[in-house]
Structure to design on (86 residues):
């Protein structure tokens, strides 16, 4: 079975970059909910889309996040990512 054919539930807890590499030709829009946990600030929730530019530090955090939830709705991806100390 190819990675891109795995059920969406299988991706929970896995690396976001790993999911992206499973089908690098997929050009559908991605809607991110980005949960960033830090000891000093607690939980910060941010929202992005793949159409928006983000600063390099935020992109680093997104790339090093774990998938909490992933859905395909109306041909757009909706991904919830977790980053930081959980």
């Amino acid at each position: 079975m190819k990675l891109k054919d795995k059920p969406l539930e299988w991706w929970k807890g896995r690396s976001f970059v790993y999911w992206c590499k499973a089908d690098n030709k997929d050009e559908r829009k991605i809607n991110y909910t980005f949960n960033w946990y830090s000891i000093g600030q607690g939980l910060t929730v941010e929202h992005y889309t793949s159409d928006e530019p983000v600063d390099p530090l935020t992109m680093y955090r997104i790339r090093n996040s774990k998938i909490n939830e992933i859905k395909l709705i109306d041909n757009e991806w909706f991904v919830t990512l977790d980053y930081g100390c959980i």
Q: What stands out?
A: The first strand starts at residue 30 and ends at 38. DSSP finds two helices and four strands in the chain.
